[in-house]
Amino acid sequence: MLRGRFITLEGLDGSGKTTQLKRLAVWMKKRGTTPVVTRQPGGTATGDRIRDLLLDSRSERLAPLAEMALMFADRAQAIAEVIEPALSSGKAVLCDRFTDSTEAYQGGGRELGSDPVLAMHRVFCGGLQPDLTLLLLPSLQASLERARRRNDRVIAQSGKDEGRFEREQEDFYRRVWNKYCEIAARDAHRVVCVEGDLNIDEVHQQIIEAVSVRIFEATNG
After folding, report:
1. How many CB atoms lie within 10 A of CB 218?
2. What average pLDDT does range 46-57 have in this prediction?
3. For residue 108, with 0-12 CB atoms within 10 Å meaning exposed, 13-18 middle and 19 or more buried, which class applies?
């Protein structure tokens, strides 16, 4: 049996990843491929508990190294429980965030650097890498405004606060942005950037073009 393909979506909070992940899953189903859709942190019972701790604004004074360790604990569980079984059975996996997020947010934003993130990736993830990473890069200001509006809406609707990262200052997000750009340049064979303040349909079109060429045509060719 052929191994499934692993596709991740990356970007700042508010970049539109979740919307585009759902649209991509629908598009893939229409082409006869029903992907396993998951997210990080979260996606498993254990991961959802870790997610609550990591994203809740009440989690104050969480040390950067502890934050990074929790991200990888969540990721290791997701790989063991969801991602690897799906790939091994030939299914495609769509994942909202993976190690690139940790390198950008903890390596860049928290200034831990890339080396410890990549070292932990080798240990916790066995070096598992996506076949394709779609990096959404609208303007920094547009992403932050959208993320904060979304968090306010979620709090009003459900009372659940996942805005701990949204409370960071712009300097933090500028470091995250720069690290994402560094990753894209370093891993250009894997990362496809969708840049600019595009509308939802324009972003989706660029995504399906990338998936068509890099995944479907490569698999069939």
Report:
1. 12
2. 92
3. buried
